[in-house]
């Protein structure tokens, strides 16, 4: 039977870089919230023992695709305690909506959805925390998508504590450039020494993103987009970009600004949600597949 699963986007409502580890990764303090908007995966479990992706993603080989990597990783991990899972297979297709290199976590979200969905469909019985730990091998953003609650994150993004930011409406705008995460983290001009603060202090201060200055400097398109959006609403970069989001109290206010967007700017309006559409979908399914 084909089953359908959401892979939502995330926003980094704030993102501060507090240091750099010896392995080159950066320590962060960031506030994640999900959007009620994203990719959709269709997954048909079978007994073929193979993972196949029926809809290749442009520019990403199947071996590199986080969808396939997540499915193989889960199968490998679950097989050690249940050898019957050697027969487990799946046919997966994706309706890709989220821009790649957008700072919306699309690839990480795809991986998390595959981990959660196949854990359910194959009846592997891994806990969310075990799945999140597996997911961290695929990317720093995967654990928050697996857990599925809005969260304050520290470490490289894997130390999560639930948070309840206001569920605002967002206009998310894409300036038409793709930005690789390593490119931003390797920029010599990046602020890497923001003092560590506790969550209460961070929530009380104006929100910002330490990646924004270097990204605006490197990409004129992002710089112009932020300047334009700031005329209408509080606006900033998500993740390492390229997307910029503006916050509004109502959907109609966000849509009005989207209609005025300059040429070359694509965008969408979505609600911020503190429980991810993936978690909601899982909770609505029968206890066993
Ligand atoms: C910037 C964020 O989007 C904030 O949510 C994430 O921290 C990035 O998460 P991600 O895309 O899952 O990143 P990964 O695929 O794990 O890492 C890509 C590259 O970004 C750099 N990287 C990533 C995360 C981090 N905390 N420090 C880093 O320095 C590393 O060079 C790494 O090789
Ligand atoms: N299923 C997938 N969907 C999108 N990108 C994928 C996928 N699998 C692998 N990738 C690779 O991951 C890279 C980052 O894609 P992604 O959409 O997660 O970017 P992002 O939104 O900037 O992520 P982040 O916010 O975590 O930095 C892509 O450029 C692509 O090479």
Keywords:
289 residues; alpha+beta; Alpha-Beta Plaits; ten-stranded mixed beta sheet; 10 strands; 27% strand; globular; binds 4-diphosphocytidyl-2-C-methyl-D-erythritol; binds adenosine-5'-triphosphate
Integer-rounded radius of gyration: 19 Å
CATH fold-level topology? Alpha-Beta Plaits
- What percentage of residues falls in helices of 4 or more residues? 25-40%
What is the chain-wise order of helices and strands? EEEHEHHHEEEHHHHEEHEH
Give the mean pLDDT. Answer: 96
> Which residues sit in consecutive blocks of at least 5 with pLDDT less than 50?
none
CATH class: Alpha Beta
Q: What is the CATH superfamily classification?
A: GHMP kinase, C-terminal domain
Q: Quaternary arrangement of the chains shown?
A: single chain
Total domains: 1
Helix and strand arrangement:
Layout (H helix, E strand, L loop, with lengths): L2 E18 L5 E21 L4 E3 L12 H14 L9 E7 L10 H16 L6 H9 L5 H6 L3 E4 L4 E4 L6 E6 L6 H5 L13 H6 L7 H7 L1 H11 L4 E3 L6 E5 L2 H9 L6 E8 L3 H8 L5
Parallel strand pairs: 3-4
Antiparallel strand pairs: 1-2, 2-4, 2-5, 2-10, 5-6, 7-9, 7-10, 8-9
Helix pairs in contact: 1-2, 2-3, 7-8
Describe this structure in words.
The longest helix has 16 residues, at 106-121. By secondary structure, the chain is α+β, with helices and mostly antiparallel strands. The chain has helices at 66-79, 106-121, 128-136, 142-147, 181-185, 199-204, 212-218, 220-230, 251-259, 277-284, and strands at residues 3-20, 26-46, 51-53, 89-95, 151-154, 159-162, 169-174, 235-237, 244-248, 266-273. The chain has a single domain (1-289), classed as GHMP kinase, C-terminal domain (Alpha-Beta Plaits), CATH 3.30.70.890. Helix 7 crosses helix 8. The protein is 31% helix and 27% strand. The model has no long low-confidence stretch (mean pLDDT 96). It contains 10 helices and 10 strands. A hairpin with a 6-residue loop joins strand 8 and strand 9. It is globular, with a radius of gyration of 19 Å. Bound molecules: 4-diphosphocytidyl-2-C-methyl-D-erythritol and adenosine-5'-triphosphate (ATP).
